[in-house]
Amino acid sequence: MRLGLEKYFPWKDYTEVIDWQLHQVGSSLEEMQRIGVKSFPRRTAVYLGKDEDYPFPTPSGKIELFSEQLAEQGFDPMPRYTPPDPAPSGFYHLIYGRMPAHTFSRTTNNALLFQVMPENTVWVNPLTAADWKLTNGDHVRLKNQDGVVSNRVRVRVTERIGPNAVFMAHGFGHTSRRLRLAYKVGASDTELITRIKMDPITGSTGMRVNFVTFVTQEV
Amino acid sequence: MARYAMVIDTRLCIGCGDCVIACKTENKVPDGLNRDWVLEITRGRYPDLYTEFRSERCNHCSRATCVEACPTGASHYWEDTNIVLVDPDRCTGCKACIAACPYNARFVRPEGYVSKCTFCVHRVEKGLEPACVSTCPTHCMHFGTLDDPSTEVSRLLASRKATSLMPETGNEPHVYYLS
Amino acid sequence: MIEEVLATARSNPLVDPSLTIWSWEIAIYLFLGGVTAGIMCISAMIALLNKEQQAPFAAWRLPLWAPILLSLGMTTLFLDLEHKLFVYRFYTTFQPAAPMSYGAWILIFVYPASIALILATLRQGYPLLASYVDRPRIGTWLLDWAERHRKGIALGNIPFGIALGIYTGILLSAFMARPFWNTAILGPLFLVSGLSTAAALAALLGREASERHLFTAVDVGLIITELAIIALLLISLAIGARLQLQALESIFGGPYTIAFWLWFVSLGLLVPLILEIRELGSTGKEGWVFLAPILVLVGGFLLRQIAIDIGQDTGWTHLSAQFDPSLLERLYH
Q1: Does residue B48 belong to the interface with chain A, where contact is any CB pair within 8 Å?
Q2: Contact C246/C317 with Cβ under 8 angstroms?
Q3: Of the four listed, A53, A55, A116, C144, which is most buried by Cβ atoms within 10 Å?
Q4: pLDDT at residue A12, rounded to an integer
């Protein structure tokens, strides 16, 4: 109200908002306070039934590998594979991902889950490791193509990553002292992602487009 | 001797460590100590790789060298089964059983006595599965007796290719891995 | 290529990354147990062979050292126990499959045998101490009885001494899970080492030149025997399977190479052997004669310490950590 936006917020307080929202699905705040959980009968099938005809929302009603709609918008009607940019010399594709023990960056300070996976490591192919004279457990920092340098992180030499890339688990390298267990453990992939690419058709973003190199001095 | 076995399908295990958390919470294992753990084994050369996760613990051997090594009888078999337990009131903390275990599955609790996986015998008594088995999100773990051919573990071992860890120790381990 | 790492962090204290359950406490205990065994055998042999004239210290005074050293060893053994209040549990049972159970009972039976030998030699060896024992009538009766049966008591000491000496080795041998230990030859090795260290103790503390000469000669024989047994130990590992070969590698280029060859074999066996052989040839000049027996005693301790360390470093399983185990210490602060 203080922002002068009352025409977008015609309710007295948030209780009214919730009541309004519940009315949209056929309930009310009063009813939900009374019963707590309300079940609705399912209106769509969980799976497609055998021999069932299901039209997709496309002109042909089918999955379209070749799309006239895309062509009308000036896009390639049959999207082609675009290879990723090659890594500059001495740099490696930064591939990040999640490990099953942790949920995003929110659980790395959980005492139980910390005991299962206390840190992330940077996965390095043995060929890359040989080039950089890295062995298991060595500390390195990662520096990306824009000069951002990460917290120190331990090396895991493994065949599970190719020689042109490194991998690290997401969610580590916290900078808050209050996160007593997770503080400054491992490196954060997020801070190394200074560039993103956008898919021109869907608008979704690709963040595995950054390159890193190793800083082996003073770590 | 009645034989209880754990059968773990390595083709379903994703190495999440939920079995480890389940054990820690169910058995109130002190911080920093582990009764179970997960190994990640990768064979091959990039990109032709084969990776397997293996949830490991005490193998509850039916010829357990730890039980043989115990000078006080603190390490013992539970009720004529292969479930190996440690009686804290008989354990002197001499650690002979730790040296005797080829799987390094034992440790000393802060109180001074030796501890290890119990197959959650307090749950097995009530007809329940061990905590790790009941928690496993991919249902890759199974528990039961081998003496009855109709149990799930018996049928899995009869129908799938299974290995136990280092049976050449002669200890007759009873945690099996399906591959 | 095969990579096998822990996917979940594991750092069980004393177990990961390799076993460190036993340290100097057990080394001291095995060493002193061996010396005690040696003392019992040597004192008994002197009595049985009527060599009291030649070796008065070993005959009359050495027996008192046996229970004292053994008690010291049992004290360090007790220090190693993690659940100390329950130590009495060793003696509420007998476990026929457990070498340590035999050991616990052997230790108990060693005491009366050893004390009987002390009583039989006390008046000769420690007249002042004997006078105190002589005061009550039962004391006089005990000393008289023991002196009358000195030969029989001495004969009885030998099996207990041998049992104790062999036990200190077999204790480790019995662990199939630790390849370096898992050979019965550790029993004879530790027994001979125990005899050798006891002979060195007698040579060190004996005042008569004849006694020093006798035990130096005995020790030369024992050290040569010990070297032969060590050769057999290495051979038995070398002709073993992969696990035994890996255990052998720890002293051939591995982390225990220097400790084993330089400290134990060279300084603890070969150097004193050379010194003792020279001493036998010379006229027994004073000065450096104490060096050889001290080296033998140090070598005896090093044998136990190194054997304990190597054995714990060898095994069937080696879990390699993927995550830094020291991070788990954050949980405790």
Answers
A1: no
A2: no
A3: A116
A4: 86
- DSSP states of C181-242 as a string? T-STTHHHHHHHHHHHHHHHHHHHH--SHHHHHHHHHHHHHHHHHHHHHHHHHHHHHHTS-H
What is C263-312 written as a DSSP string?
IIIIIIIIHHHHHHHHHHHS---SSSTTHHHHHHHHHHHHHHHHHHHHHH
Cis peptide, bond prior to residue C17, ω within 30 of zero:
yes
pLDDT in tens, B35-75: 999 999 999 999 999 999 999 999 999 999 999 999 999 99
Query: At residue C99, what is the residue type?
Result: P
Residues 6+ apart with CB under 8 A from C43: C58, C59, C62, C63, C66, C117, C121, C154, C157
The residue among B111, B17, B2 whose CA lies nearest residue B57 is B17
Q: Which residues in chain B belong to E strands, given as ranges?
A: 4-9, 37-45, 48-56, 75-77, 84-86, 107-108, 114-115, 141-145, 162-164, 175-178
- The token pair at C218 is 């005995």
Is the pLDDT reported for residue C258 higher than 90?
A: yes
Closest by Cβ to B46, choosing from A100, A115, A125: A125
* Confidence check: pLDDT of A55 > 90: no
Average pLDDT over residues A125-134: 97
CA pair distance B87, B93, nearest whole angstrom:
11
A161 contact B CB<8A: yes
Write out the two tokens for C199. Answer: 């002979």
- The answer to whether residues B77 and C50 touch, using CB atoms and an 8 Å cutoff, is no
State how far the Cα of C224 lies from the Cα of C269, in Å rounded to an integer: 9
For residue A136, the chain B residues in CB contact (below 8 A) are none
pLDDT of amino acid A4: 79
DSSP 8-class letter at C87: G
Q: Name, in order, each residue with C-beta under 8 angstroms of C324's C-beta and a sequence gap of 6 or more.
A: A118, A119, A137, A154
Subunits adjacent to chain B (3 or more Cβ pairs under 8 Å): A, C
C-alpha A121/C-alpha A134 separation (Å) is 13
Which of A53-62, A99-108, C260-269, C283-292: highest mean pLDDT? C260-269
Half-sphere exposure (CA, 13 Å, Cβ side) for B72? Answer: 23
Contact status, residue B56 vs residue B37, Cβ threshold 8 Å: yes
Query: What residues of chain A lie within 8 A of the CB of B32, using their CB?
Result: 115
Confidence class for position C285, pLDDT limits 50, 70, 90: low
Q: What is the pLDDT of residue A46?
A: 74
Question: How deeply is A126 buried, as exposed, middle or buried, from its count of CB atoms within 10 A (0-12, 13-18, 19+)?
Answer: middle
Alpha carbon A170 to its chain centroid, in Å, reads 8
Classify residue A54 by its DSSP letter: -
Q: Check if the beta carbon of residue C161 is closer than 8 Å to that of residue C41.
A: yes
Chain C contacts of A118, Cβ < 8 Å?
9, 323-324, 327-328, 330
Share of chain C above pLDDT 70, in %: 98
Q: How far is CA A53 from CA A50, A56, A57, A62, in A?
A: 9, 10, 13, 10
**pLDDT reported for residue A159:** 97
Tokens encoding B145: 């007796």
User: What is the H or E stretch that residue A96 is in?
Assistant: strand A92-97
Question: Quick one: average pLDDT of B76-94?
Answer: 97
8 Å CB contact between A119 and A185: yes
Residue type (1 letter), B154: S
Alpha carbon distance B69, C21 (integer Å)? 15
